[in-house]
## 1
Amino acid sequence: MKTFLRSFLISALASSVLAGSACASSILVVDMIPYSWSNETNQDSEPSLAVNPANPQQMAATAFSPDPMQGPNAPIFISTNGGQTWSTNSIVPANVYSETDDITLRFSGSGNRLYAGYLRGPGFYKLVRTTDFTQPTVMTLLEEVDDIDQPWLATTTVIGQQDTGKDRVYVGMNDHDGPGVSAGHTDTVRRSPDGSVAAPQIDPLPLETSGLSGTDLAPVRIATHPDGTVYAIYISVHGNDIDPYNQTLNAVVVRDNNWAVGAKQFQDLKTGTDAGHIIAANITVPVNSLGPALGSERLGGGGISIAVDPNNSSRVYAVYSDYPGGKPPYTLHVLRSDNGGVTWKPELLTVPNIINPALAVNSVGTVGLLYQQLTATNQWETHFRRSLNQGVGWFDTLLATFTDGMPALVTPPYLGDYAHLQAVGQAFYGVFSSANYPDLTHLPSGYFFMRKVDPNTHTLRNLADTSTVPVSIDPFFFYFSDQDQGNDFYVRDWTSSPASGDNGVQPSTNPVFYQTSDVWNRRSIDPGTFPNDQPDNEDAGNGTTTKGDNWAFTRIRRNISGSAATVTAHFLISKFGVGSPYVDQSDADLSFPDPDPTLSFAAGEIAPKTTVPFHWHLNTIASKHLCMAVETSTPMDPFIGKSLRGLSPGWPTDLIILNDNNRAQRNMFLTTTPAKSQPGMKKYYAILHNMATFSRDMTLQYTLSDPKRLNGATWRVVASSLGPLHATDPLRLASRGSIVVKAMQPEEDRWLEIALPVPSGTEGEELDVQFQEVAADQLLDGFGVGARLASNAKTIADLFENHRSVYTRLAALYPSDYAITEMKAPQPYLDAGSFADTDYLRFLSANLKIMASAHTLLSRSLVNGDPFGSKPELDNLTALYTSGAPVASLLVSHATMLDELDALLTQQRQMKGDEAFILQNVLWQRDLFLRGDQLNALAAAGTIVDASRTFIDGYGNRTLNDPDYPVHLRTLLDPLRQVAGALETTLPGLTVKEQAIEAAMNTGDLTALQKAHHDFLAQLAALDIVR
Amino acid sequence: MLSTRIHGALLAAAFGLWSGTVALAQPTAAAVEKLTRASQLIFRGTVERPGAVNLAILKGGEDTAVVRIDEVLHVPGLLEVSRGQEVTLKLSRPGSFKAGDAAVFFTRSWLYGENLALVEVGHTDLGAAVPAQVVAAHRKMAAEALQQRLDGAALVVAGRVIETRPSAVVDKLQETEHDPMWQEAVIAVDRVVKGDARTARVVVLYPGSNDISWHRALKPQTGQDGVWLLEPSPAAAGMYIAPSAWNLMGRDDLAVVVRMVKP
């Protein structure tokens, strides 16, 4: 930072007090007028702020600020360092005065697109967009409409659902020529199903359906949830347009469950037959700009806001403002609904003499409320309040204060008809307008001025430092986080070297966040060493007793000292690949006998600490190719949202690992191969699981670590869990690129085969391919496969263990003497440490025929054969051995055969169902009946959706577990029977599938129940497409 | 036959204009006017650090340079720009300058941060006539703007406001904070420069609201005198509007207006 940027106190202990207890917080307040514009004296009121949710370092803001050089475009304020410093960039097509009227900004959820909805002049609305807000290119016009007031923008990008990648754009407004005008209503949302395309479709959607007419008040506010729930709040007016005191005003909340893209929009919350729920009836709102004022500020009928809990789309907060009993003071009221707006808890907070309320809810459910209040002593105070308990109690932080009229009003609005508050992760970001006195009297939470100030006299100075600049109204950015670093414990997603690693920033910055993370497995209670400051992960072992014993570890740290704390670590496991849901409950594959480990940090202790060994056991039938995750928590630093259990990063909505530094995962599959170049290819297999509740294409980007030595690498999809699949010919992998796996069905597993050459290299070297799932330009998840080059002896040792592991699975799943023999065969070598070439050749000599016999027996039990080709590879291994091929070649062939056999065993099991998919079944069930038009119309739909939501919430909160799944389905027996009966003609055989659910329920076999439920849902999906 | 590139270079040299590389000859007035019309900030400057930037938000490259302002030739608005100030220039042609190169830079705004970043529209050499040519170009642009307003006016009169009153003919919009609160100003006309020569009284609709949407609009006051450039009101037949402050000129400008109004 340049020295001329006079910095005062930026980060402080906020004056946040509730019931006498103090709370350490981080706060930053910044006057946004840039240094090069230090002589600015404009009344920069009515600010708006957009924080890029995909990169919170990027921000854009607006106020009523003209272009300093009177150009044709109005400026936006921009920051690329989290709001610490600001510049302006004039890229919004402006009116003749180089400014705009009402304007709001928002970023897309991913893809870095910035939208602005604004009035270029009175009523002349425009929607514009840019893909790089730092460049001088003027924003692209998407639409323009006349007779509009107060456009208020909300945007997000669909992730994890149908239409993934599309920007949902909503602009609330008072449209005097809108679709509701014929019925006497004006409040409207102009909605685009995808604002990212060149010429977006945009439709005006009326909010009110009642038969009463009246010109609604101007403000409309919107809140979106990643699951597709969209709320809006507005003030409906019924009565005489000319006489504001002869009207009935109601504060109304409307809701749409499906992005407002279905057949009817904003009609999923109803009062009788009318859309919406009246949260406050017959209120008095000062609406006439000729009428009442609050100090120098007019009262333009604003005073509403709405926000939805990102972890619970049914929990929504709303603010309306009125004259209680028809008389001043103008008072805000905060309400909360826990059931999607059906009922409300009123008066959680009331504050008199306020303007510009703005609500937001952060990732841990903390509610933030920004407002400005005129006090009895004529002071304009800007407050940021927050509640950690759903609005019951509120902390209060005073951000700014100044005397009304100092500076004098230039033009209404004095401070604005709105301010803005946004939550990204655990942080709150806000913008407000206030007087720009550079001192702690007026900015008591600390401040930072971009523009030139004299720190001694606390005055504003011009750029040449030759004169004092008069005080005016400036836009102020603020950042607030309860998550002070002293209490922010995190698990590293990556470490490059002792000097370079994840510092806890959210979202995580390294796309390879699953290879060197601080969660790892060991085969003993020893956490191992940390070469290059990276944990030394060991492949899991499967089997009975000690052979299946594993221990999980995680390393936890914080950046600065804080209070003493105990961190709890919770470990989860999923199948190797991308998309497979995590499990944390004992089942047929694995068990978790230990309680969650805890780690105590003394006050002031920051150094990384490793948890005690967490024992988990991998059973005989399970593959050792796994992914491991951890989520940590303290009372002051819980992990974000619900548990990862039953879910996968990016699906159904959340980037869950990247966005939360309390979480980390490891997803890497390395096979030890000889460090000598060999002919042939080593093959690897990864599961691609479709965690979505609809059919979709899965896109994977890949990168070869060494394109030259891995030249010739190929990929193809060889198998599916849903039945026979025509495998394509292998396709070459370039040095980097992307592959698309088409039309994956919900819950489908497909096996990706990656064949890599076996080049020479140095022992210990790793040659790999990184695959990353992307959707909507957003990295969701990833995994890596490759070779760890080693001596023959080390390769033989690892291969013997792998041989034991795979044949243990075979012996457990398809018992035979041959399989049992092979399971036991490597043990003497492992026990004796006999890993010489001669030992290995002796092993092959004794076992190749037995292996062949085991395969022959297995082939009789296979459903749809062996798409992985393990038997041909065994034949190849036998031929190589017979021909006297080098041991290194035999090892490559042998390792490939084992991985093929392992994948085959997994595929055969997956065709019978999987307990791990229980939550996905219920998510799928909810979405089918919520978003499928035909299913949603059935009488039983509401019951099924409500029950599904209850199970989903309970499962995520860990209050419901796998054994509760049959209970859930049992409560739905009648509704499911009704559905089957109603649709049997359309979907022949549906009744049989429903009966199969009942039959499976009675067996107590959760895997069979999951499969039967899946088959029922799959047939329903043929009827309705889930959007 | 000359190559296209050389041919273009010679043409540019002939005009003294180069948008994207060092100018080769004394620029013509026409060339300077063309650049001036596309520019906001015009200055004589010296390239200090090619490839560099002086705003943290930017990354340097072939298309950037830090340039020292040696003389400001034109700066619009109230922006404070002074001699010796260093600015970042986004070059219209990457790599076109080396340290020490001096030129007259025609620029438009980009970023206002800890320093200014500007987009180069073009540049010329340091011809002594350039400052005067820039002034002349702006004078010409101002005259054109006035001519355009006069051409667009249905009625141009000299007169004095004798009454203001709330408008009875235009509906109010109670539920918008941008309610214009239409008012009427009655002007007693003493000379008609353009329009119906019989006009003695004219009613001008104007927004009484001081809201952000209207605060820069012309708000006639009783007794206010001048030359009024009026357009027909789209909302009320027989009435006029004067949308901006530029629609009222001083009586001292009457002679100029009379001269410029086309018959």
## 2
Amino acid sequence: MKLPYPHFLLLLLLGWAQGLTAQQNQLSGTITSDKAPIPLASLVLKSERGPAIIAYAYTNVDGNYTMSVDTNGVFQLIASAMGYRADTIMITLSGSTVQQDFRLMPGALQIRQITVKADRVIKEKKDTVIIDAQSFAEGNEDVVEDLLRKVPGLKVGGDGSISVDGQEVDRVLIEGDDLFEQGYRTLTQNLPAYPIKSVEILRNYSRNRLLKDIEDRQRVAINLTLQEKYQRVWSGNARLAYGARYSSGNSARSGASARPTSAN
Amino acid sequence: MMIRYKFATLILFIFSSFGVAQSSTGEAKGCVEYQSNEVSGRRILFFNETESLFVQSSTKLGAGERESGAKIEDGGIKMTVNVKDEDGNQYYRNFEEMSLTIRHAKASLPAYTYKDDWLTQDWAIKNKTREIGGMQVKKAVTEFRGNTFEVWFAPEVNLPYGPWKLFGLPGLIVEARDQKTGRMDYQLQSLHIPCPVAWPLETPTAAETKTLREHVDYRDNYSDHIHQHLISRLPPAAAARLSPMRSNAKSPRENNLEKIYAWETKEPTWDNK
């Protein structure tokens, strides 16, 4: 009786070696169209069904790609390139080196237009940047300050001070009225955010119109415009908030957040 | 026989011109416009099959032109830096040559270009999905030069392009943010194939060129360069009183998206730079 030791060992060794490589699948290949290689074609390996991307690669100038995959199973392999029709195959990986070439058919460049927001959310006039406030609102803003935090380009400090591109804001106006002077925090920390229509950044702001181009220092101010339905109502409320400037934050807030119906 | 020969030449001619047309550069096939937290001007990513070019702070794309210079006020000197010019900041990637060229726009000091290294970005694709502009987009994160970048990309637009220096995902980057400075905040505004904006898709140019290391050194010492520039423009008496400026930043790269380069071990501070 002969013991098949050597064979057994060899088998063991083979099995072990295979076990080692089982996690690493090496995929490679060339993507061509009419024999010419396609550079920058994308290869995306997705789970058998479902959108999860397992691995991806792009071809180089010679149309070659390599992809390492550390899970085994059945996958979709999608090859596509700009100006070509995409090709999808199903592929089974089980710890192996796989060569998978694609030949793509030319397809019309996919014409598409996507516009996330029809209107430009940020408009620029000479010295003024107008930002559509509600397009940045996420619905969880309580007061103006919360809304300003979400407007790109504006920074609200821990103490409530506001700066635009690093420059501190001088004044915050409402519909062009400077009700709070430098104590604008009373306004921004108390006025509810929902009536605000747009945030205007006035780059070359001067308190005196006649001095606008004479004053040396460039001041930055923010003007808040209100949605039409709140405009008439606002003046009454603003006075309330203004009057509450010297009292506690809470009462100022309750004054400022009076609903339009109660003010009417 | 002669006719055949002519025919063959004709075919050859057609083929070669086709070949040229295919690999022709200089023309954008599509473009993406982003909104950003930098308040002025448009920022657009132009692309074709093998090139991408991201442009911002260009007056041609509506960036406001502001005067640059120094004014004396309240006993101090206030300087305004004009960071905009016609061609603006440009980031050009050529995927065939694997080259990345950046044009640094005029910022009081002249514009220049530099060639950056082609560094691959290892993206971790997250399982998060949301919808932007009717497209299903996925989240991905990468570390690049000591900063963390979080992006959303659109797998259905199978192009490896993105704003700034970001690239290499299996889909166009439609939103991008950085963690360290918070200055990067690009959001898709529109995507157009073909592109309605005319812009040459080619290697950007400027009168000056720098190496990557020269560029980094220049940026780290930017306030010194500006100081020199001001001295040369002020009357001698005023220039003599002008002491070197220190920017408000805590470190030379506080506001830079790139923190650490390959030849460094940590981000420089004002003291050890």
